[in-house]
Amino acid sequence: xxxxxxxxxxxxxxxxxxxxxxxxxxxxxxxxxxxxxxxxxxxxxxxxxxxxxxxxxxxxxxxxxxxxxxxxxxxxxxxxxxxxxxxxxxxxxxxxxxxxxxxxxxxxxxxxxxxxxxxxxxxxxxxxxxxxxxxxxxxxxxxxxxxxxxxxxxxxxxxxxxxxxxxxxxxxxxxxxxxxxxxxxxxxxxxxxxxxxxxxxxxxxxxxxxxxxxxxxxxxxxxxxxxxxxxxxxxxxxxxxxxxxxxxxxxxxxxxxxxxxxxxxxxxxxxxxxxxxxxxxxxxxxxxxxxxxxxxxxxxxxxxxxxxxxxxxxxxxxxxxxxxxxxxxxxxxxxxxxxxxxxxxxxxxxxxxxxxxxxxxxxxxxxxxxxxxxxxxxxxxxxxxxxxxxxxxxxxxxxxxxxxxxxxxxxxxxxxxxxxxxxxxxxxxxxxxxxxxxxxxxxxxxxxxxxxxxx
Length: 455
Prior knowledge:
Layout: E1 4-8, E2 15-20, H1 24-41, H2 46-62, H3 64-75, H4 79-103, E3 107-111, E4 114-122, E5 125-129, H5 137-148, E6 152-156, H6 162-174, E7 182-184, H7 192-196, E8 201-207, H8 210-222, E9 227-230, E10 236-239, H9 245-257, E11 269-273, H10 274-289, H11 309-324, E12 328-331, E13 346-349, H12 356-359, E14 366-372, H13 375-383, E15 387-388, E16 390-394, H14 398-407, E17 412-415, E18 430-431, E19 434-435, H15 440-445, E20 448-454
Helix pairs in contact: 2-4, 3-4, 3-6, 4-5, 9-10
């Protein structure tokens, strides 16, 4: 009897589709084909690779709305956000296709009387464990540079987005890529160790939570496989002196509620100076209370259902624990009275360092507002976390902003704008939010061997 995986519509709870999971023999065969294909792909001219990826961008762009709709059906990203995200993905593909040759070009040098050059050799078959919250963009953000660096890739997508997973593989075929360059691996999480133990797997890449990180890291370490890990977590949004509180509240709402709050680099801890605190909390609670939770295909909807049913119980536990620790609940704080996977947008006031939502990532539509007596204390609070991906600082004083930003212990910090990402900029965590970088030149070079040739 075959094991299967289902795609469930989070809004209707209906089954979109059902897929058979691969058995061990099928898994080994796909890895072997990817390895054999790698031997051919690593000899592919740069011009051919560029052509194929530009074709991939064209293929996606030609059917953009249908591709975006599939993402909405599986994890219920708002339709408008899904369309925007696929457009961004097309831009990412073209950026890498148009810049990879210069980034990976051989570099000549002289040192201590020797001449030489650096060359970037591929590594082989890369195994990637993908997240569910951005089933196209986050996958391609890693797949594209990996493949452009002459590797082949095997992807284990999240279990709740198998239709998007299969669609990506189909798009690669449609664009003219050989079957072994990009492989969708429909397997359960229990097969991760089996895959990573295969001698043909050269490296592993993960975007996910702390639990998955510990498992993947341990298996990779035991098998001497290098890795790049990105985990997200509890990013801070600092509000300094300002005369533009209404604009900041608007930006704050965008920063927290992108993708229904299910975004690794969205702000989660909001740190506000005491003199603005009560007014800010009042305005922000009002903004959250006005959000409309309904059908993500309806353009008037501003809050989609959560992507997974268990998430409703998880967030309810985190919020109730924080309230029991004496945080003040300003807005909602409970599952909505509907049969679907909705949790009402939630604002928590007077959150302090000993509370659950301060210490843990609340990866859902919840904002924790923390009071600060000074800029110095705001920086201290922001840095009081084991996890850092992105941060935001808002202040009318541009010169002082740079000084504050330089003291915040994060990978990337945004001044007077919500956090985001671009193909041309590095993306990755610090502390326990992971290691290694995706995007920009580092993303292309991460999965290569920088070989030194001396003559």
